Each structure stands twice: as C-alpha cells, then as structure tokens.
Amino acid sequence: MAQQLRAQMLKVALDFLDSKDDAEDVTQDAMLQLWRYCEHIDVSRNVSGLAVRVAKNCCVSYYRKRQVERRFNGADSDVALLHKPDASVSPQEQLEAEDARHQMTEVLALLKPRERELFELRQLDGLSTKQIAQQTGIRPKSVSAMVSGARMKIFLELKRRMKR
Amino acid sequence: MTDKAIQKLIDRYLAGTTTPEEERQLARELLRPDIPEDWQTVRLMLGELAMGEAEYDAIMANRQRQTPVIKRMRLRWLSIAASLLLIIGVGMMLLRPTQEKQLDAVVAKVQKQACEAPEVRQEQTLSPQASDSQSAHVGKKVRRRRINSEMVKASEEVSVAPVVDEADETDPNLHYASHEETSDTLPYQDPCRMNEFIAKLADYYQVTEGLLKCSAPMDSNIVSAVYVFPEKWVVGNRLQEIDLFPRLLQAACWYSDETPGYLLNFSHHQFFFELKDLQKQLQYRWIAERVNGKILLYGTTAPLGAKVTSVCYQAYREELMQIKHINNKSKQIRL
CA of B36: which chain A residue's CA is closest? Predict the structure, then answer.
C-alpha cells in the first residue's frame, strides 16, 4: 500500500520537477504528511486521491521555497533552510495561516458529526456527491442538501468571525 | 472567468451542487490576489489542500503554454548534436584496426571485473589468482573451491555474473561497444544510503552512536551500530513525538521491492528491514523498536552468508528494559 501511494506521489512530483532527486525529496515529505493525515483519517476513505493532493501541495511548497531562494540571489542553498517547514512564507503569513486553521477547526466543531463527515469527504478526499452517496448509503439529493447546510453554516460563522 | 461567473460558481458551491471538478476550477480562480471578503471566506473553506492543488495545476498549465517554443529549440540542438555524434561514431569505427578492437573487448572486460570485485572480500577473491602462479597448495585449493562454489551461489541469485570466458567468444565483426553487458535490469540502489540516512537522523536528533557491549564472540567482518533515540524531544517549548518510524519507512520505501533480499516489516512500534548488496557481497539489517519510552535502532552489516546473531541486540534491549525495572523498584521503595 505504502509503495503504491509512494509511486503515485512520485509521478506527480516527477511531472512537476525537472530533477529526479528533488522529486524523491518531495515525495518523502509528502509521505510524511500523508502519514500524519492518515492518523486522523479513516483508512477506508479515498487515500489514493488524498495522496495525489498532498503530493501536489508538497510540490508547490517546494517550488515556493525555490522561488524564495532565487529571490535571495540564489546564494543561499543551505539545506537547513530548504528543509525548514514553510521557509517560503513570511512569519506574518505563517501566523495568518495558523489562525485560519485554528478558526476552521473551531467552526468545524460546531457542525453535527454527520454534517462534518460529509463536508470533509468533499473537502479532503475530493469525492463527488455520487461517490459519497454510494459510500454512506444516503440518497444523492440528501447528500447535497446536507453538504450545502454544512457549507452555509461554516460560511456564515466564518464571516461573522471576520467582522469581529 | 468573469467575476459574475465566479460568483455564480460560489453560489452553487454553497448550495452543494458543484462537482469536484468545478470546485477545483473555483479554487484556481480564487488564487488571484485582492479578492472580496466573501470570496476569501470561500477560499478558506476550500482548504489548504485544495488551494495547493489549484496552485500546482495553475503552474503546470502555465508551463505547458511556455514549453512548446523551448522544446522546439531544444529539439533542433539535439538533432544537430545527435548527427555529429553519429558521424564521429561511424568514423571511429571505420578507422579502428580490427585487432585493436578485439584487444579492447578483452581489456574492457577485465577492467569491468576489477570494478565489480567486492571490497570486503578483496583478499579472498585475489587469492585464487595468486595460487595460479604458485605451485599447488592444498589449503589454498580447498579455499579456492569454496569461494568458487560461493560465487556460483551468488551468480544464481543475480542475473549478472562476471564471466571471463565470454571474451573468447567475442565476434570480431561486432563493434567493441556492443559487448557491454546490459542484462542488469534493476538500477543499483546502494543499501549503504540507509546507514547514511540513519547517521543523519542521529545527528539531527543529537543522538550519538551507542557503545556496543556484547558478550558474544565478535566476527570482525560484521559491523553493527546502535542508537537510542528519545521518543519525544523538545521543539520550541513543547515536547513533541519524534517521527523516527515514518522517516525510516520513507527511507525504506526508496528501495525497489525487487532489490535482492528485500524484507520490510513495520508498525508504529517496530521496524524491520533487510537488504542484500550483491555487488559488494554484503547483507544489511535494520531493526527499530520502542522500548521503555525510548526507540532502539540497531543496524548490522555483514558479508553475505555470514552468520549474524541477535545477541548484541538482545543485550541492548534487555539493558533498556532493565532501566525500567530499576526505576519501578526505586518508586516502590519510596512508597
């Protein structure tokens, strides 16, 4: 299983990066992140789709790090900088991202368990309404109604918090 | 996409009627800077994963638009270089005398063998050649036979086996470069990289290699290393679990599962990994295990076929268990 996911992720990275070594590095990072996700996520879910998305994310953050390095005249090829998490993002942006994550967790906690599950199946696993209906046994119409309910709740709550 | 179309898509997203593809498209549209507050909220809702994916797709799409010109340029240069190489190659083939060609084939063979001679057993592999020039020595003969039989065994395991006699069958009509053996289908992945990786990990977590105290008779050909990692370590002001097991798993996953001797077993508490290096005639084994709030990592490298015992590993493990035992005792006494 791990091997298969790794191969999938490596393919994503190889498409994106020119160097095979870089792609290997990114895949290692992606494996680690996926591992972390999987500790919270039910294994029966669409892990393969998630793996691809995680790999894409790792590619993008690697790409950003590279851009930052180039901005600093390309002189700083320090390995430590490259492997520091989020070296590409300024402390300000990092704080904002952290805050956003925090807000989202709080808002998600307000949802009913079923609503939350459906919302996350769409948000994290990228499943379609039909696939969710098949997996959960709920009728497709009810799925989209529940997803809509969850999204509206989150949207309004986040808006309210932003205004404060 | 126009602002109006994006707003329409957002409305449908909130109504739960968008498809995953439409949501990906929405994420791509919301990548643009300076968007209204409502749209920022939706961006937040789509989540970091979706936004990262959108950025990936956008970069790729952008690149695809740019590449054709570069590709065409590259192709032209490549074709010029290839034709030049072809001309030089054909010229060299025609100018080279046949005899020299044959000699080269033999020399190439011998040189290739020298490269492939396993480092550890250099002394052993050289001895049969030495014995050829000397008068027959019984002891050496026996030893040579043993080595030969080992080599046969090794050649059964690998598809590539250095064969000297083949040089005699060289077809003089073939170009010397065509004698290059290409039957090695697996790219060589040096198991040593695993050890380098472990050394780097130890360095990162500031763990020094432990002293091997072992009561068992030691075979000087077997090299073992032991590290005791803490399960948690301080990051900033917090104690955080160290991710040694995922890291080891990642490193192990780098190897193709068709690597000779590949054996991988893992859980959150144990990690077991074995590899064989048929080029250097070595076998590798790594074991990691959570013991008493610590992680014991043990690596052994031995010549192929050597008997590796687990006595040293056991001793270490017991020592760690002992510490717990002693701790418990002292607590009992205090109570």
Answer: A159
Beta bridge partners of B270: B289
What are the Cα distances from residue A82, in Å, to A73, B30, B223? 15, 28, 33
Q: How far is A127 from chain B (nearest CA, A)?
A: 7
β-strand pairing of B232-235 with B238-241: antiparallel
pLDDT, tens digit only, all 335 positions of chain B: 888 999 999 999 999 999 988 998 999 999 888 888 889 889 888 888 888 888 888 888 888 777 666 666 677 778 888 888 888 888 888 776 555 555 555 555 545 444 444 444 444 444 444 444 444 444 444 444 454 555 555 545 544 444 444 445 556 666 666 655 555 567 788 888 899 899 888 888 888 887 766 656 667 778 888 888 888 888 777 788 888 888 898 889 888 888 888 888 887 788 899 999 888 888 999 999 888 788 889 888 888 888 777 777 777 788 777 765 555 444 444 44
User: Which secondary-structure segment (H or E) carries A20?
Assistant: helix A20-40
What is the 8-class DSSP label of residue B273? E
Give the start-to-end residue ranges of the domains of chain A.
Answer: 1-88, 90-164
Task: Write the ipTM.
Answer: 0.81
CB of A24 within 8 Å of a chain B CB? The answer is: yes
The amino acid present at A47, given as its one-letter code, is: V
Q: How far is residue A153's CA from residue A67's CA, in Å, rounded to a whole number?
A: 38
Residue A10 CB-density burial (10 A; 0-12 exposed, 13-18 middle, 19+ buried): buried
Contact A63 B41 (CB under 8 A): no
Phi, psi of B256 (to 5 degrees): -70, 140
Strand partners, B266: B271
For A90-164, CATH gives 1.10.10.10
Q: What is the largest CA-CA distance in chain B?
A: 96
Inter-residue contact B259 to B244 (CB < 8 Å)? no
DSSP 8-class letter at A72: T
Of A22, A17, A38, A27, nearest to A82 by C-alpha is A22
Please return the burial class of A21, using the count of CB atoms within 10 Å of its CB with bins 0-12, 13-18 and 19+: exposed
- Whole-structure pTM value: 0.47
Answer yes or no: do B41 and A162 touch at CB < 8 A: yes
